[in-house]
Amino acid sequence: SDDALVIFTPSGKRGRVAKGTPVLAAARALGVDLDSVCGGRGICSKCQVAPGYGEFPKHGLHVGEDALSPINAVEARYDRIRGLKEGRRLGCQACIQGDIVIDVPPESQVHRQVIRKSASERVMEMDPATRTLFIEVPEPSMHEPKGDFERLSEALAAQFGLTGLQAGLPVLAQLQKVLRKGHWQISAAVNEAGNGTPPRLVAVYPGLREAALYGLAIDLGSTTIAGHLVALDDGRVLASSGLMNPQIRFGEDLMSRVSYAMMNEGGAEEMTRAVQEAMGSLAETLATEAGVERGDIVEAVVVCNPVMHHLLLGIDPVELGQAPFALATNEALDLHAADIGLAPLAPGARAYILPLIAGHVGADCAAVALCEAPEAREDLSLIVDVGTNAEILLGNKERVLACSSPTGPAFEGAQISSGQRAAPGAIERIEIDPTTKEPRFRIIGNDFWSDDPAFGTPTITGICGSGIIEAVAEMRIAGILDPSGLIGSAEQVGTARCCATGRTHEYVIHDASPDGPRITVTQGDIRAIQLAKSALYAGARLLMDEMGVDKVDRVVLAGAFGAHISPKHAMVLGMIPDVPLEAVTSAGNAAGTGARMALCSRKSRRAIEAQVQRIVKIETAIEPRFQEHFVAANAIPHATAPFEELAK
Ligand code: FES
What we know:
Elements: E1 3-9, E2 14-18, H1 23-30, E3 48-52, E4 54-56, E5 61-63, H2 73-81, E6 89-90, E7 100-103, E8 113-114, E9 124-125, E10 130-136, H3 148-160, E11 166-167, H4 169-181, E12 185-191, E13 200-206, E14 214-220, E15 224-231, E16 237-244, H5 254-263, H6 267-290, E17 297-304, H7 306-313, E18 333-336, E19 350-353, H8 363-372, E20 381-385, E21 390-395, E22 400-405, E23 426-432, E24 439-443, E25 462-463, H9 465-477, E26 498-501, E27 504-511, E28 518-522, H10 523-547, E29 554-558, H11 559-562, H12 567-573, E30 584-588, H13 590-600, H14 602-614, E31 616-617, H15 624-632, H16 644-647
Parallel strand pairs: 1-7, 11-13, 14-17, 17-19, 20-29, 22-31, 23-25, 29-30
Antiparallel strand pairs: 1-2, 3-6, 3-7, 4-5, 8-9, 10-12, 12-13, 14-15, 15-16, 18-19, 20-21, 21-22, 23-24, 26-27, 27-28
Bound molecules: FE2/S2 (inorganic) cluster.
FE2/S2 (inorganic) cluster is lined by residues 36-38, 40, 42-47, 90-92.
């Protein structure tokens, strides 16, 4: 017959193709994922395949060496110059002549799954929006009035089937030089968002560009801005860095920034400028750290809360400061990166911003939802991203609910008398002996407990978020606090560690006065933690009410802070509902991971865009039951809810 059976592994896709069809064309026709950068011209070798010869009993096939055409001149030249691995053929050159089984090795798959080195690191599925295409553009002539861009666009349409290419001015400005430098052969970085928008020319490089393109995944928080520089061929992280959000000088928390914008003419613009500048310098730091040219960075993905979102985009956030908390836009955005301060990157670099869930529940929470995918599970997950505002998701494959809860910055060590950010010298763990009431603790940057001689005499600067949570919980366990949160209930007063200050008491963790710091937990600190934890618990309860459950199956603590909280202490405090301790896990920086997933894969973008539509938003501010839950949760661990797991 005139056609042949071809079976591709590992996909298992199969079909009949006309004899003489190149393997690459057969792969395209059968929907097999086989890469090609040079358009089948035997230059890039991305299309390499490993044909199998011999018996394939499973498929009832015997395949002889003549099932593929012999090596032609193009392939021979590639082999001579660059060397072809044993058993490999160029898929764009080798033609199918008989029934055959063809293996596509992982490095020839565009959408390959990359296996990470450490088990805890997530497998990134690669399907990036921007790819490099090697293309030869016809030279101009006196008889051909078409411009360089139009001839490039036609060549891309003819060789890669890309139609309707668009280019902005910055990349057009580079095109003529690059075409001539590459002697009419260039590599074009083209962004295909995959949502129906036309392909966009992002950058042009002379000749064949074999190096990867790069992208940035940025988690824009109200306090810090953290970013990763990621290679877009396999998703590896080449550099990670962070800086303080310069908007802090306009207001510590989001609401004070919203009021800054309300009270000051031009205030919103000022904050927009500040954060965009910071984005630019973060990009620069990451590129320098990774040793990557900024012009090779072609994309960015940004996740952030709604107020930061609006301020980044130059939208006045005042509507977010008052009910009904209307967003200017909640859908995912695909922008020119330079429009949000990410410059100079590749001239046409794009920026994708994840969709927002609601007026208080941002793209950062959407990124957590993308990373944790509660909708893919049977069991009921409570996912808590603890920051100045806690964002809470509750759901399983039936339904997913979301809300945010105003915890305030106490969990981050702010508004705590001896509080500080997590940094070397800060107390991060603490234990209190229930009999003697004596503390022992650990500080960041020291491997030993304070009662170990190896601890030495380091400078102890304060207590960070995880430290204050442990301190309050340990004080409760040791009986220094009563269930209402009062320090020094009768029997404790008078111990060396429990001193009176004015009309209240405080617990002394470390006292190096008069020369050094005196680190204490005051009654005010306890109240601040009680308010924060009640808000968090009440938000979670509200979602549980809505779901009609009084238990969850698992609790996931997300956020950089979540990674450091001890589940036991969180439960002693009543921050989270009662579950078996082993059902409490940390997802690390889930928002950052979600941003990286969206950077590496268009499929992830479509998935979260669809999922956000399905998430049911609960507004805590207008819900009377929130107040009830909040009041009941003020006690440690709780006034009414049984904490059975704790009793075990
Ligand atoms: Fe480039 Fe085959 S597609 S070498």
